[in-house]
């Protein structure tokens, strides 16, 4: 634990955190209610940390447990806020969720699924985007569903039109009210032929979670095929679902009448692993990420190598409660000398993930020459570069599609391409964390910068990075809560 840790949100609204006359001009509201970390930068991060099950699989696998008629067990579940949100929602719907005997084991018993009141569900409004995936499973189990207003990171408008269109084609009736969405399926849910306008991860999951128990066959075209989707398909197959993944993003699902529970060890979190890899590069350090898996990170590893980073697939001897033995991972390091500029664009799998973009841009501020980052998945995911510029980086953002293929945002008014000129000497600054991945990149920038930065709102990082404080400590970071 980093020194000075306070309980979460220690100050009541309107409390005073700073001495009168303090010169801070940051968003005071954020500062008053969230955690503030003082980060003393300039020390290379060095050591070993471990990543557990992927946030973007674990949360969906938890929703899938609702579809079974017997208990499911997930292993290696990280302690992060998104898991708590889904756990809360499952609990409200009568699913008994308990921690198993081993660290990271979660047992979900959906034997007595029941309706929850809209008021209870609305407690989770704005906290995550996962509740939208409860639609199909709740319609199957209860015949109706209520979905609160969604949350998640503010990285663009994040519409849910693909989800709604798909659900309607299955036969759901959606009633949007000011308090949230009510769904029913008066004539049941039926298999259908669908084509997504864009290979959306969430919409593909929505279709999978609905089609597995819909009557008849569903054919989904232009589906997302991220490793987390493939792992969700594995979970559903273990439950008794019949799903075929064809070439060219076509997935066929034969609906079945009943599903049972599963036991599953999720794929490791490749976003967290890449975030620590970028931290090693940006701070000129060396980090071994236990649990990281090469197969899911090939695109990242190629880019990492092109920039000048080095990595090794490792088998490390580990001893921790309950585990003694050899565990695989990836060691990432900065080999010394200068990093190379690269031109990149984010894309759906197997392209370079949009969630890898922000941490890597911090490392690119240290590369010699002009790097280009063309963000093609979310239209507003470069706002965080302003904070990096405050710290001495030279990053310009453009509305044009720079660097290669024109994307959906090209002729619209979104600054979605960045040119990063480096290397830049980063200096300390006061930073307010805007969203999960940008937040982690702020943290990396503060660790790479000279001097002491204050990072406001670090609690947001707990949404997706398990135990990041202890991991920072283990890597020798100098930081404390203020
Ligand atoms: C998932 O979001 C992840 N979240 C995101 O990670 C990730 O960045 C994203 O997939 C892409 O890999 C979770 O798994 C919880 P999408 P999702 O639907 O499913 C547009 C993180 O930090 N779209 O693939 O919401 C959308 O606006 C998060 O861990 C529509 O237009 O992403 C975007 O431009 C951030 N209409 C594109 O598709 C829709 O109905 C891709 O979004 C749905 C999506």
Q: CATH architecture of the largest domain, please?
A: Alpha-beta prism
What is the global morphology? globular
Strand content: 15-25%
Number of domains: 2
Q: Identify the bound ligands.
A: ligand EPZ
CATH topology of the largest domain: UDP-n-acetylglucosamine1-carboxyvinyl-transferase, Chain
Which structural class do the helices and strands define?
Answer: alpha/beta
- Proportion of residues in helical segments: 25-40%
Mean pLDDT: 90
Number of helices: 14
Task: Count the E strands.
Answer: 24
The CATH superfamily of the largest domain is known as Enolpyruvate transferase domain
List the keywords.
482 residues; alpha/beta; UDP-n-acetylglucosamine1-carboxyvinyl-transferase, Chain; 2 domains; 5-stranded mixed beta sheet; 4-stranded mixed beta sheet; 24% strand; binds ligand EPZ
């Amino acid at each position: 634990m980093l020194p000075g840790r306070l309980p979460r949100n220690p100050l009541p609204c309107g409390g005073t955190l700073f001495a009168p006359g303090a010169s801070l001009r940051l968003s005071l509201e954020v500062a008053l209610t969230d955690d503030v970390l003082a980060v003393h930068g300039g020390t290379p991060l060095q050591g070993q940390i471990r990543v557990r099950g992927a946030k973007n699989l674990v949360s969906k696998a938890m929703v899938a447990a609702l579809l079974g008629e017997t208990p499911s067990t997930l292993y290696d579940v990280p302690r992060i806020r998104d898991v708590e949100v889904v756990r809360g929602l499952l609990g409200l719907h009568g699913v008994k969720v308990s921690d198993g005997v081993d660290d990271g084991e979660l047992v979900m018993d959906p034997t007595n699924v029941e309706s929850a009141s809209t008021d209870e569900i609305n407690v989770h409004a704005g906290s995550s985007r996962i509740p939208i995936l409860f639609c199909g499973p709740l319609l199957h189990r209860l015949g109706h569903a209520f979905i609160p207003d969604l949350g998640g990171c503010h990285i663009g408008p994040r519409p849910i039109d693909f989800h709604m269109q798909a659900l309607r084609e299955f036969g759901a009736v959606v009633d949007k009210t000011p308090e949230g969405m009510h769904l029913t399926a008066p004539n049941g849910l039926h298999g259908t032929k669908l084509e997504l306008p864009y290979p959306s991860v969430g919409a593909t999951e929505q279709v999978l979670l609905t089609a597995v128990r819909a009557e008849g066959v569903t054919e989904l075209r232009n589906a997302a095929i991220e490793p987390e989707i493939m792992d969700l398909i594995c979970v559903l197959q273990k439950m008794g679902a019949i799903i075929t993944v064809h070439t060219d993003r076509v997935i066929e699902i034969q609906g079945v009448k009943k599903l049972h529970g599963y036991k599953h060890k999720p794929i490791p979190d490749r976003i967290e692993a890449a975030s620590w890899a970028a931290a090693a590069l940006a701070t000129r350090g060396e980090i071994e990420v236990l649990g990281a898996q090469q197969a899911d990170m090939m695109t990242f590893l190629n880019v990492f190598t092109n920039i000048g980073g080095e990595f090794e697939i490792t088998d490390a001897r580990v001893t921790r409660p309950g585990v003694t033995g050899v565990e695989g991972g990836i060691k990432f390091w900065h080999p010394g000398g200068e990093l190379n500029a690269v031109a990149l664009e984010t894309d759906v799998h197997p392209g370079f993930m949009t969630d890898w973009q922000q941490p890597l841009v911090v490392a690119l501020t240290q590369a010699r020459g002009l790097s280009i980052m063309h963000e093609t998945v979310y239209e507003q995911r470069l706002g965080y570069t302003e904070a990096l510029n405050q710290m001495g980086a030279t990053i310009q953002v453009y509305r044009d599609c720079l660097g290669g293929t024109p994307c959906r945002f090209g002729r619209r008014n979104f600054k979605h391409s960045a040119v990063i000129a480096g290397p830049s000497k980063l200096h300390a600054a006061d930073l307010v964390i805007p969203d999960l991945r940008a937040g982690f990149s702020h943290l990396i920038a503060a660790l790479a910068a000279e001097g002491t930065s204050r990072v406001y709102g670090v609690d947001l990082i707990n949404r997706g990075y398990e135990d990041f404080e202890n991991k920072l400590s283990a890597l020798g970071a100098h930081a404390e809560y203020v």
